[in-house]
Amino acid sequence: xxxxxxxxxxxxxxxxxxxxxxxxxxxxxxxxxxxxxxxxxxxxxxxxxxxxxxxxxxxxxxxxxxxxxxxxxxxxxxxxxxxxxxxxxxxxxxxxxxxxxxxxxxxxxxxxxxxxxxxxxxxxxxxxxxxxxxxxxxxxxxxxxxxxxxxxxxxxxxxxxxxxxxxxxxxxxxxxxxxxxxxxxxxxxxxxxxxxxxxxxxxxxxxxxxxxxxxxxxxxxxxxxxxxxxxxxxxxxxxxxxxxxxxxxxxxxxxxxxxxxxxxxxxxxxxxxxxxxxxxxxxxxxxxxxxxxxxxxxxxxxxxxxxxxxxxxxxxxxxxxxxxxxxxxxxxxxxxxxxxxxxxxxxxxxxxxxxxxxxxxxxxxxxxxxxxxxxxxxxxxxxxxxxxxxxxxxxxxxxxxxxxxxxxxxxxxxxxxxxxxxxxxxxxxxxxxxxxxxxxxxxxxxxxxxxxxxxxxxxxxxxxxxxxxxxxxxxxxxxxxxxx
Length: 484
Fold this sequence. Notes:
It is a single chain. By secondary structure, the protein is α+β, with helices and mostly antiparallel strands. The protein has a domain at 150-320 and 366-484: Outer membrane efflux proteins (OEP) (Up-down Bundle), CATH 1.20.1600. 61% of the residues lie in helices and 13% in strands. The chain has helices spanning 2-22, 66-76, 78-99, 151-217, 223-257, 284-294, 296-318, 368-435, 440-474, and strands spanning 104-113, 116-118, 129-131, 134-147, 322-337, 346-360. The strands form 2 sheets. The protein has a 4-stranded antiparallel beta sheet, with helices on one face. Helix 4 runs antiparallel to helix 5 (223-257).
């Protein structure tokens, strides 16, 4: 019976090995403990409507929408893939910790070819013999830890906490990628708006130069007016060239974030001058509470602290008794075995069945356990301090970004009022100049004030968009809702 069981086990092992060797490129082993169910479904997040990012894109032909830019950046982000892979590593470590609760079964099979030659001096040379025994061995061993002092549970808790930390780190990377891409997208739109404003200022300066040139040619205007208008046009052209360079830099930065060449020509929809309807919708107390609970940095720091506490329990449990069970079946078959010198070779079989319990009690480890406990306690203190630091930093960021958003709202209202006043002032100055009752200095001053007001309005809207992004990111809940 034992021999048959051993042969069956050996046959099954051989079949398994042949299957593995026949398919070396097969996929990963099955996740029997379902540890990867604790992971995101992929390295990419779900969109606000719960649909996944498919990472299937056509060539960019028309204006690039913001949501497509975000999806492209997420799909090509190496940081996101690396963070997700690290989370999968921790999921596998959780499986290793769970596997410690199951028994270990080992099977061994061997074949030994031996040549034995016995030579005796006379008068015993008649006992000379040469044999070639063949030995076949097979064994099946089971070992199982039945009870410990909480070591396996502590290792399991530590692995689970580290997996939570890895998931939080992955979430933080995704949100950082989303934030950076949206910011670059807004930077390009801002650069477009600034370029259009400088082009409009250049056209106005050119029109003013034409008017002063015509007046000077007709003898109704001074040469100094014409020269001042020419200086204003040169200054407007210089600002337009600088704005064009800023646009090229911003576009190249966005293209790199999308995984494209910086030489890629990207067209974005023109930004409106009105505020989007979407808002945070929470007061400062709710935002602070949300950040302390959901921010990935806080979640990661809290999970690492939990892992360190579990490690302390594991270190202490390693110095306590462990009860184990073991069972082993062994068989050895030898052909042409010589039981006693001078007798003919014969076949022989040897069988052993072993069942036992083992209690391991650590008695003295040279005080190493004490220092491991001291080190684990110190690590807990360190991680607790880092958690407190992370919470304080996040709270400060939320507060500053909340105040910054309110300030930017006020800036937009003031900038809009300033632009309207500057526009009316320029129209009046232009009318007075063409009617011959105004001078060139008045017109150029109004033109410069209008250009500055337009620049302030663009900066105010860009600042508001940036402040809203930063506030959403500081709460740990940055999503597509905050970047529309």
